[in-house]
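Morning, I've got a small favour to ask if you have a moment. I owe you a coffee for this, so here goes:

…
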Amino acid sequence: MGERIVMLGAGAVGGYVGGHLALHGRDVTLIDFWSENIEAIRKNGFELSGMTEEERQVSHPKTLHMHEASSLARQAPVDIAFVTVKSYDTEWATQLIKPYLAPGGYVVSLQNCINEERIANIVGWGRTLGCIASRISVELFEPGKIRRQAPKGAASHTVFRVGEVHGRPSERAKRVAELLSVVDGAKVTTNLWGERWSKLCHNAMRNGVAAATGLAGREIDQHEIFVTSLSKSVVRRFG
C-alpha cells in the first residue's frame, strides 16, 4: 500500500517517526513552522540518533514550510495525517490539513494529551484516530537533528499503541500500527482512553520535576532520589 502521509509538526516525535517512515520508503511529507528546522533537513537530511551506533541514520523526507502547505492542493490527496504538534496547536493544524484529506483519509493524534475530541470537532469522529508513544524519549536538540534517549523497546515494551475512540479494532488502526512498527514496537489497543490517561499521569509526574530541576527525562530516570519518589507516588495513587 502506498499511502500519502503527512506529519503536521516535525519536532521530536513527528520528526523521529516521519524520518523513519521515509527511511523505509513511505511517501511522507513533514510540515513545520520552524523554518530553520525545515531548511536544515533540506540541506543535510534529518539526522537521527539514539543510544547505539546502529540507530544513527540520515533520512531525507519531503518537507514543507508552513507557508508552503497550500502546494498540497497540487499533489495527491493525504491518506493519513499525523498531528504531532503541541496540544494548543491542535485545532489550527487540523484545520490546515482538512481540505487536503482524501475521501477516506483520516487524522491520527500522535500527541501526549487527549486531543481526539478537538480533532473530531473539525474532521468528524469517523476520521479521527488516536495513538500514544509510550516511553520514547526523543528530543530535537538542533535544527534537523533528533536524538532518542531511551533504548529501542520493541523486544520488551510496545511503544506505539493505536486505537479507535470507540474501542473496537479496525483495519485502519491495524494499518497505522503496521506502519509504525518500522519505528519501534506497535500494536492496536482497545483501550485508547486508558492508554491516554496512563501517559498523562506519567507525564504529570515527570514534567513538573523536569521543569523545577532543569534535568532532562533521562537524567531524572537515572537519579535515585527522583526514581524512588516517583515510584512511591505511583504506589500511593494506584496501589
Remarks:
- Residues 167 and 190 are 4 Å apart (CA to CA).
- Residues 191-239 form one domain.
- Residues 192-213 form the longest helix (22 residues).
